[in-house]
Every structure is written in structure tokens, then in C-alpha cells.
Design a protein that fits this description.
By secondary structure, the chain is mainly alpha-helical. Helix content is 75%, strand content 0%. The longest helix has 29 residues, at 214-242.
Length: 303
């Protein structure tokens, strides 16, 4: 491990931009493909890129040996949350979905407490409460029950986003427990391929009757190749170079990038309530993840 260099910081920014853009591309592709077909194409495309890298590194035995845990991670970290976020993309802005995504560490902390008996301290508990309060701020004006043209209400969209982050919170703890020491590339490739197998039949059942536009296909390709395959490679490269504690800082970059992409490409409005909710969510996440800690007085200091 090393201190973060300018090159590492640039990769971290690129990763935040890619994962922030995923909410934009879901907004573009979901109305034409539908959630099930879009998610299948996303994970299948990523798997096709990542599996040859596993083969090139001679890591097939590790992939076969951990097939069952990789299936669980594929469902909990890709198939299910990607589908939930794509349903939400039918009715919520990219920025709003990106902000709620930042609550995943809150669920991770709660599940680690309940499952792994990793009890958080008072500051982290306050962070959890603050983070979820931020979601309530965001939902205050959005959680209507009236369906949109796609049959999804804003309230259901927000519930889908929260459920997706709950999936991420579970999976990060499951991965820590069942896949510790497994090469990160194997986890990425195996989970995406497993997710593709799980999503294959649902995607065929829900395949769009009308051929999607070129714009929608470009969005799917960007999701699969840039926002999933390339993003995973960047993320695991950062973990190898600077460690997970610094790599996880990408959590705080995703919401602003999601807001900016939605504004620039789709003209999505950015409201004061959204910015306030984003600030509260990120503050809570920083506290819950231990990034912000109260400084203790130095016992050796003298007046």
C-alpha cells in the first residue's frame, strides 16, 4: 500500500464519474429496454469483458472453487440491486438515485452489527440516524403514490433505491465473511457472470417487443463496458494500490457526479432540497463509516 498519488486521485475521480454516470445511463435505457432486459445486458456484457482476464491470469480454479458464494454475491450485489435501481430510474432523476445510493455504508454498518457483532460506536450510530434522516429529506417532496407513465410511483422508486442499498450492505458483509482472500478480479468476473445467468430467463420473458433505439443501445453498452467492467477494474486497482479505506472514498463522489450528469445530459432539475438532502446523507455516511471522528485531546499536551 502507498499514499495516494495524483494518478490515484485521478483514477478515483474517474471511478466516481463512471459510477455516477450509471444512473444517467439507466435513465436513458430503462424506458426502452425495461429493467430486466437492461440489467441482463449490463451484467452479461461486463462478464464477457472480465472473464477473459480471469483466464489470462490463470484464476479459473478460484472461480470454480467459490462458485456458490459468487452466485450469492452476483444476486445480492448486481442482479437484484441493479434491477431495483433500474425500476427507480423510470421515475426518479439520476441525481436523486445517486444520492440514495450513498446510504449503502449505513446498511453495511447495521448488518455488520447484527450479523458479525461489530458494534458501532456512538458517533457511527449518530451517523446512521443522520444518513437516514437525509433520505427522509429527499423523499419529503418526492414520495408520491401516483404512478408515472411507466406504472411506477415516486414513492416506489425511492423504496427500490433504499432496498438496493440494503442489498449492497448485506453483500459487503457476506463477501467479507465468505470470500476473504479471493482475488478481486475473480469476485468481479464471477459475480457478474452469475448475475447474467440469473437474469437470462427473466430478460427473455420481458424482452422489449419493439427494437430499442440506437441511443438506448449506446446507454446499455456504456453501462456494461464503462460503468461496470472498467469501473470494477479501476476500483480493484485502487484497492491494491492505496487500500480499501481510501478507495471507498468513491462513495462520496458518486452523488455529485450523478447530479451533474443528470443536469448536463437530461436537463434534470437540481433543487435546494436535493442539495440539502445530499449534504445530510453524505455527512451521515462519513460518520457511520468512520471517516469523520471526534478528535480526542492529546494527554501529553500542556496549556
Amino acid at each position: 500500500m502507498r499514499a495516494m498519488t495524483a494518478g490515484d486521485a485521478a483514477e478515483l475521480l474517474l471511478l466516481g464519474a463512471l459510477w455516477g454516470a450509471s444512473f444517467l445511463f439507466m435513465r436513458i435505457g430503462a424506458p426502452e429496454f425495461g429493467p430486466l432486459a437492461l440489467v441482463f445486458l449490463r451484467v452479461a456484457g461486463a462478464g464477457l469483458v472480465l472473464l477473459p482476464l480471469v483466464a489470462a491470469r490463470g484464476q479459473w480454479p478460484a472461480l470454480r472453487r467459490h462458485a456458490v458464494p459468487l452466485l450469492v454475491v452476483g444476486i445480492g450485489n448486481s442482479a437484484l440491486p441493479f434491477t431495483l435501481f433500474t425500476v427507480a430510474a423510470l421515475v426518479l432523476t439520476a441525481g436523486l438515485a445517486g444520492i440514495i445510493n450513498a446510504t449503502a455504508p449505513l446498511w453495511g454498518t447495521l448488518i455488520a452489527w447484527a450479523w458479525l457483532h461489530d458494534k458501532p460506536g456512538p458517533a457511527r450510530l449518530i451517523g446512521i440516524a443522520v444518513g437516514f434522516a437525509g433520505v427522509l429529506v429527499l423523499a419529503w417532496d418526492k414520495a408520491g403514490l401516483k404512478d408515472s407513465a411507466h406504472g411506477v410511483s415516486p414513492g416506489l422508486g425511492i423504496a427500490c433505491c433504499v432496498a438496493a442499498t440494503l442489498c449492497y450492505g448485506f453483500t459487503v458483509n457476506y463477501t467479507k465473511r465468505r470470500l476473504a482472500g479471493v482475488p478481486p478480479l475473480v469476485v468481479a468476473a464471477g459475480s457478474q457472470s452469475a448475475a447474467a445467468l440469473v437474469m437470462l430467463l427473466p430478460a427473455l420473458w420481458a424482452w422489449p417487443a419493439q427494437m430499442p433505439s440506437t441511443r438506448a443501445w449506446v446507454a446499455v453498452a456504456a453501462l456494461a463496458l464503462a460503468c461496470t467492467a472498467l469501473a470494477y477494474l479501476l476500483y480493484f486497482r485502487l484497492i491494491a494500490h492505496v487500500g480499501p479505506a481510501q478507495a471507498i472514498a468513491v462513495t462520496y463522489l458518486i452523488p455529485p457526479f450523478a447530479i451533474v450528469w443528470g443536469l448536463l445530459v437530461l436537463g434534470e432539475p437540481v433543487t435546494a432540497g436535493m442539495l440539502a438532502g445530499c449534504a445530510v446523507v453524505l455527512l451521515g455516511t462519513a460518520l457511520a463509516s468512520g471517516l469523520l471522528r471526534a478528535r480526542r485531546p492529546d494527554a501529553r499536551a500542556t496549556p
